């Protein structure tokens, strides 16, 4: 049993109900202060508390947390980050986990997103955490470096045994919130929080003086509940608020909630109070301010936070911009060169597509604003959905899933609901090829499905004979097959129609992973192939930036028989949802990360049918051109029946490792010296590199990467021929930083010029690697850095002064 406080946000309760269903966890929603622990002794695995509550109340949860722990349950607190600058933090109340959104730290509401979440826990639970974690390591020169840590928890390694199906994270949004925190620092954040609290207190006192019942002044941070004396009075207040263009949250027939933030001023406050007063003249705000009592000490924070020097060093826009630029300059991005990551589709994010997301009409709306105020957004949702239906040749689309992995999970849950509606809820076997993305088995596990793996033949295709045997064996339990097309091996499988028929003839559904849709749009479709559901990576095929890992969008398209089971939402039901059969919410906002949908909308509209089809053809052409150019020097692992690849291809480095000792990691690191990001390493086959050029790159850029790889092949040949040492060579020592190359001590068997300027173009523009070869073993043992000594803070303060 998982217990949720009834004071949690309704969207939170909705998402958890959906998630719990796949795991077979019973969800109980109740009042925590009167919860009867004796009735469920030993049965409750965890509880969720909202802090402050959905109505803005600051609850004292310490006794509840103690009771939960005595009962053997873990405690999660869903928190407001800004409120925590003033309130006692969850850790000091002995909660086990703290979660929430970082949206309040400088990110627009965006009609639902994107925003970065946060997840914090005790050290003892670190190996159970979901998602990507960055830890500290050192490079070959002993300098500080960062790398992903504890990767054995994750889907790309543990697959269905992973702690989550998360593939990436909202990295771009996390950085935005981080910069907000860095700029303001703890003192600035406390000032912002204090001002918001004061505005809320002034409003509460003003409406209380007008005779309304309100939250008690010591019990809230930024949200005030107001109760009217009758339904009619509330309707009058709502009418006046609407005339003033102010939206509020209606709780029931007599009560509303109002939340304040740092953008609110005396003008909005005066308008609000007039709406409640029912007259043109507002209250004397100055008198109210002067009459306010000293704030109560309930749950006040006394501990320090954000003590690292970085939160005390950048107080001017100039300094912050320089700091941000220094960080950005360490990264290889599309402004420097092509990023040939296979299965990632790193294509152009056109400026014309990006501009609209900065418009206030897209950036500012609250996700629960009245529909009639959001007609433009809803028209875009409708048109974008129609476009995706046309592209996929399926029937209906849900825009709610926030990532490709979440799209997988949603699609499989839709299939699960479909089987249940047919009295076939026992169908729980999901067949997945061994070559599938790790998110596939992880998503299936989240839906409570049993994973059955099917192998591939020597050409990289699904082993159809093995598939048929397993589908027949499990025909009474078969729920779905998850398949990627073109395959993760970068080929169009000739037997795909047979694969689909094998599953359908045994009562299963076909889930198509849309990771490789950039090779389908306009020339074939999931509907043509016979898929029942498909997710679409809008951050791949449809141009939303990857943002270092996020934001992503993973809408799903479904066939007509699955349409009634698309996800709904407890606050704002999306378009065309069947209330009788629909799945519950899979995201907190009804349309997921709505504010980035204009990017894909613009891309599709500007390209048109002809342009989208041409883009697909050019993407395939570019991949085949590169594969052909490189094939004389590197083995290309898989090709289709006609000797061609799809939109990506795999370079097999295993034979070269046998002859030279050079690994795929060595080639990946050496490419940095040439100014390129590495292709995808060791996926879907260990010891390989997978290259996806996309349609966005010119022939000149394709040739430049080919030239770099061919020059690296010559360096490998020198090792094979004994001209270079097997350990002391440019590949084993790559990447070469400016520090290394300019050092007074150069004791390597090759020249500095070969190390730093292996190609002529690197002399014209050189993007220096920021760290040398990372010590992976050290990084595995050091998850979190030790905070700097106290002296560092003093030095930081002196620099600021």
Automatic annotation (TrEMBL):
GO terms for molecular function: glycine binding; glycine dehydrogenase (decarboxylating) activity; pyridoxal phosphate binding. Its EC number is 1.4.4.2. The lineage of its organism: Eukaryota, Rhodophyta, Bangiophyceae, Galdieriales, Galdieriaceae. The glycine cleavage system is composed of four proteins: P, T, L and H. Residues 615-736 form the Glycine dehydrogenase C-terminal domain. InterPro entries: GcvP, GDC-P_C, GDC-P_N, GDC_P, PyrdxlP-dep_Trfase, PyrdxlP-dep_Trfase_major, PyrdxlP-dep_Trfase_small. Its cofactor is pyridoxal 5'-phosphate. Belongs to the GcvP family. The glycine cleavage system catalyzes the degradation of glycine. SUPFAM superfamilies: PLP-dependent transferases (SSF53383). Its main location: mitochondrion. Gene3D superfamilies: Aspartate Aminotransferase, domain 1, Type I PLP-dependent aspartate aminotransferase-like (Major domain). It catalyses: N(6)-[(R)-lipoyl]-L-lysyl-[glycine-cleavage complex H protein] + glycine + H(+) = N(6)-[(R)-S(8)-aminomethyldihydrolipoyl]-L-lysyl-[glycine-cleavage complex H protein] + CO2. This is Glycine cleavage system P protein. One of its GO terms (cellular component) is mitochondrion. It holds the Pfam family GDC-P.
């Amino acid at each position: 049993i998982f217990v949720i406080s009834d004071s949690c946000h309704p969207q939170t309760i909705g998402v958890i109900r959906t998630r719990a269903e796949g795991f077979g966890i019973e969800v109980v929603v109740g009042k925590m202060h009167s919860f009867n622990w004796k009735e469920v002794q030993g049965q409750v695995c965890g509880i969720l508390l909202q802090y402050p509550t959905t109505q803005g109340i600051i609850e004292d949860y310490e006794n509840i947390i103690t009771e939960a722990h005595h009962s053997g349950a873990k405690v999660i607190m869903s928190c407001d980050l800004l409120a925590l600058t003033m309130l006692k933090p969850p850790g000091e109340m002995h909660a086990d986990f703290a979660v929430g959104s970082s949206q309040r730290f400088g990110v627009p509401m965006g009609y639902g997103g994107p925003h970065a979440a946060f997840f914090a826990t005790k050290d003892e639970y670190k190996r159970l955490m979901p998602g990507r974690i960055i830890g500290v390591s050192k490079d070959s020169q002993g300098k500080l470096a960062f790398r992903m840590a504890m990767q054995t928890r994750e889907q790309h390694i543990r697959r269905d045994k992973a702690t989550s199906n998360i593939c990436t994270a909202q990295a771009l949004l996390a950085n935005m919130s981080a910069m907000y925190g860095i700029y303001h620092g703890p003192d600035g954040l406390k000032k912002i929080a204090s001002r918001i609290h004061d505005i809320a207190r002034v409003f509460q006192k003003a409406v209380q003086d007008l005779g309304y019942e309100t939250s008690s002044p010591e019990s809230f941070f930024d949200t005030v509940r107001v109760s009217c004396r009758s339904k009619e009075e509330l309707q009058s207040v709502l009418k006046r608020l609407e005339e003033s263009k102010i939206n509020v949250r209606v709780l029931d027939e007599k009560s509303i909630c109002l939340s304040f933030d740092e953008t609110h001023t005396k003008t909005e406050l005066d308008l609000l109070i007039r709406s409640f007063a029912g007259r043109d003249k507002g209250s004397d705000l100055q008198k109210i301010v002067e009459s306010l009592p000293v704030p109560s000490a309930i749950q006040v924070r006394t501990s320090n936070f954000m003590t690292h020097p970085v939160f005390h060093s950048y107080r001017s826009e100039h300094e912050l911009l320089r700091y941000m630029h220094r960080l950005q300059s360490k990264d290889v991005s599309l402004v420097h060169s092509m990023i040939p990551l296979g299965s990632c589709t790193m294509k152009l994010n056109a400026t014309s597509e990006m501009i609209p997301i900065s418009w206030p009409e897209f950036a500012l709306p609250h996700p629960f604003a009245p529909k009639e105020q959001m007609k433009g957004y809803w028209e875009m949702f409708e048109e974008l959905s129609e476009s995706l239906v046309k592209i996929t040749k399926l029937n209906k689309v849900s825009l709610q899933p926030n990532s490709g992995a979440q799209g997988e999970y949603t699609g499989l849950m839709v299939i699960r609901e479909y089987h249940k509606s047919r009295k076939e809820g026992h169908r729980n076997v999901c067949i997945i090829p061994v070559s599938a993305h790790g998110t596939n088995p992880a998503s299936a596990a989240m839906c409570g499905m049993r994973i059955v793996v099917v192998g591939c033949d020597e050409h990289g295709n699904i082993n159809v004979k093995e598939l048929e045997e397993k589908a027949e064996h499990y025909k009474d339990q078969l729920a779905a097959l998850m398949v990627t097309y073109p395959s993760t091996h970068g080929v169009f499988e000739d037997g795909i129609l047979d694969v689909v028929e094998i599953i359908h003839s045994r009562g299963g559904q076909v889930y198509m992973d849309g990771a490789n849709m950039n090779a389908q749009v306009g020339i074939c479709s999931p509907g043509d192939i016979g898929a029942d559901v498909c997710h679409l990576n809008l951050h791949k095929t449809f141009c939303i930036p990857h943002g270092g890992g996020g934001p992503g969008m993973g809408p799903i398209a479904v066939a007509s028989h699955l349409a009634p089971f698309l996800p709904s939402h407890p606050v704002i039901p999306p378009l065309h949802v069947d209330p009788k059969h629909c799945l519950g919410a899979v995201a907190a906002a009804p349309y997921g990360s709505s504010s980035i949908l204009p990017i894909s909308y613009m891309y599709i509209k500007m390209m048109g049918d002809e342009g989208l089809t041409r883009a697909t053809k050019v993407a395939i052409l570019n991949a085949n051109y590169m594969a052909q150019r490189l094939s004389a020097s590197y083995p290309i692992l898989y090709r289709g029946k006609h000797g061609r690849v799809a939109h990506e291809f795999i370079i097999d480095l295993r034979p070269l490792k046998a002859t030279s000792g050079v690994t795929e990691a060595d080639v990946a690191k050496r490419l940095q010296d040439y100014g390129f990001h590495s292709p995808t390493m060791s996926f879907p086959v260990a010891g390989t590199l997978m290259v996806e050029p996309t349609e966005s790159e010119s022939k000149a850029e394709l040739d430049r990467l080919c030239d770099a790889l061919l020059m690296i092949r010559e360096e490998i040949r020198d090792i094979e021929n004994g001209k270079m040492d097997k350990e002391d060579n440019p590949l084993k020592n790559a990447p070469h930083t400016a520090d290394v190359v300019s050092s007074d001590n150069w004791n390597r068997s090759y020249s500095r010029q070969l190390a730093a300027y292996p190609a002529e173009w690197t002399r014209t523009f050189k993007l220096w690697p920021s760290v040398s070869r990372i010590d992976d073993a050290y990084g595995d043992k050091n998850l979190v850095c030790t905070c700097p000594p106290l002296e560092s803070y003093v030095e930081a303060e002196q620099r600021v002064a």
